[in-house]
Amino acid sequence: MDKYQMREVIAKRAAKELHDGDVVNLGIGIPTLIPNYLPEGISVTLQTENGAMGMGPTPAEGEEDKNLINAGGGSITLAPGACTFDSATSFAIIRGGHVNVSFLGALQVDEKGNLANWIIPGKMAPGMGGAMDLVVGAKRVILTMEHTQKGNPKILKECTLPLTAAGQVNMIITEMGVMDITPDGIVLRELHPEFTVEQVQAATEAKLIIAPDLKPMDV
Question: What is the pTM (predicted TM-score) of this model?
Fold first, then answer.
């Protein structure tokens, strides 16, 4: 499975977590692919923390509007009925608990649901952005990420990088499977058919709990 296929698998599976009417915030990277795979009959409202509610599809090349971007600087469109507002209003929406699901990437996540996704010490970083508000304010936090980074596990017993937030992650979706964060640890609920349980555990530092009803990943 190449990088493009991995991103596609993750985004397609993540889209199945959405319900009609959800307000959704998409982080940069893999999360921005999720709207391409929404199930039929599902209508969601996409929010971006730099100040828009009701994002539309990505504009075609050459049709970008320099005034319309998401929080990561990527070009967006606005769907009919969309509105824009200042950052204070945007973060009031987030902190007020009005976002149903936030999809984010991660540098590290651990078995307690701690998330590190904003800085590697010693490297330049523009800042945390809205991540710390999103992981606390959203009703569900789902990580969509590759399972490893250059062969190194990203799902750990304990994060070693500075945390974005503690104990806020609900679910992890990677190219290998779907995992829930529970009080007992990380439960592997779905397994991609190309991998074995042993391969997933070998790529994961944290000890996985295998669900008794483990099923194939819905891709």
Answer: 0.94
Just list the catalytic residues.
49
Residue-wise pLDDT for 66-80, tens only, equals 999 988 888 999 999
What was the pLDDT predicted at 177? 98
- The tens digit of pLDDT for each residue in 191-216 reads 999 999 999 999 999 999 999 999 99
Structure letter (DSSP) for residue 69? B
Q: Sign of the CA dihedral 218, 144, 171, 140? A: negative
Nearest CA among 192, 193, 187, 189 for reference residue 207: 187
Block residue for tokens 């969509």: 144
Count of Cβ atoms closer than 10 Å to residue 185 Cβ: 16
Q: Length of the chain, please?
A: 219
* Three-point CA angle 42, 46, 52, nearest 5°: 150
d(CA 100, CA 122): 34
Which residue is listed with tokens 């391409």? Answer: 36
